[in-house]
Amino acid sequence: MPPNLPPRPEDIDPAQSYEAIATILNSLDALVYVADMDTYDVLFFNDYGKSVWGNPGHKKCYELLQAGQTQPCQFCTNPKLIDSDGNPCGVYVWEFQNTQNGRWYQCRDQAIRWIDGRLVRIEIATDITDRKTIELELQQAKARAEALADTDELTGLYNRRAFFNYGNKLVQQAQRARQPLSVIMFDVDHFKRVNDQWGHAAGDTALIALTQAAADSLRAPDLLARLGGEEFAIILPNTGLDDARGLARRLQHNIAHLPITIEQCTFHCTASFGLTVADFTCQKSSASPSAAYVSLDTLLQRADEALLTAKHSGRNRVCETPAA
Ligand SMILES: Nc1nc2c(ncn2[C@@H]2O[C@H](COP(=O)(O)OP(=O)(O)OP(=O)(O)O)[C@@H](O)[C@H]2O)c(=O)[nH]1
């Protein structure tokens, strides 16, 4: 062999070539290890792994890599690495937060035949914590932005956008399940006078107190939203006329008796209520051709008509339209 040329791979003796490969694997900026797929014994663990998880000694892979793990991990990927005949079936890529150091890794796992013929798992795990942290922060920011986009700033209730978004789904669900659904609209009476007499900030305080009182009277599936100004709407899934009327009257009573205190002065507000019901329990028929198909827009329009009637007939009362 000419003196200055590197040796060809086939000229290197096996012991040297093992060392050459180990040198490469030990230089990688990623965990590389090999574990017996039956016994979980660690057969190879590179220097990167040792620097993070320590020396393997006689530990099983799960004892070495995971916190407090005394038996094979539930999330062990071994079953994913072999086909139904028990033969290696390619690379499986997954992401995982290590239970010992809390860092995120992208793992590339593969079953291979070891030098003595047994099946082993080789894993190459790259630290992706920085990318994952940014991803999680973006997800949280998106969730926060979505929540803000749905929320009325003053009262913390759902806003008009969220009311239609979620409300349409509730109406569709009620239609599918053939359940009654009620819609209530209410509007604070002579609210301009409250602002004029007590000031805009006092008006804000009153709106918060009134809506809190209303929210406290509702069930978890009910949807209360501020549509704008001093106007609110409630969707009551699986609620027929009698129950909706009972609730609207309770709300009317609670609001009228709610003391609102501003700078040691106490005053009261009243509200007018409009109510309508979609009786999705009815089958579509010639007698009632449109009973099973009514939109949230239509329900809101009917509730608004009833609310106007309540305003025109003296306020502080509940009016209703016939079932849609
Ligand atoms: N403080 C406060 N006032 C608001 C807010 N939004 C709307 N308003 C006030 O609510 C009042 C609504 O007045 P109108 O629409 O005339 O109704 P009203 O005085 O309540 O009379 P009726 O509805 O007919 O009983 C206006 O003075 C608005 O400025 C708010 O967020 N905070």
TrEMBL record:
Domain GGDEF: 179-323
PANTHER family in the record: DIGUANYLATE CYCLASE DGCM-RELATED, REGULATORY COMPONENTS OF SENSORY TRANSDUCTION SYSTEM
InterPro entries, per database record: Diguanylate_Cyclase (IPR050469), GGDEF_dom (IPR000160), Nucleotide_cyclase (IPR029787), Rev_trsase/Diguanyl_cyclase (IPR043128)
Example GO molecular function: diguanylate cyclase activity
Organism: Pseudomaricurvus hydrocarbonicus
Annotated protein name in UniProt: diguanylate cyclase
One GO term describing the cellular component: plasma membrane
Pfam family, one: GGDEF
Catalytic activity: 2 GTP = 3',3'-c-di-GMP + 2 diphosphate
EC numbers: 2.7.7.65
Lineage per the UniProt record: Bacteria, Pseudomonadati, Pseudomonadota, Gammaproteobacteria, Cellvibrionales
Cofactor: Mg(2+)
GO BP term (any one): cell adhesion involved in single-species biofilm formation
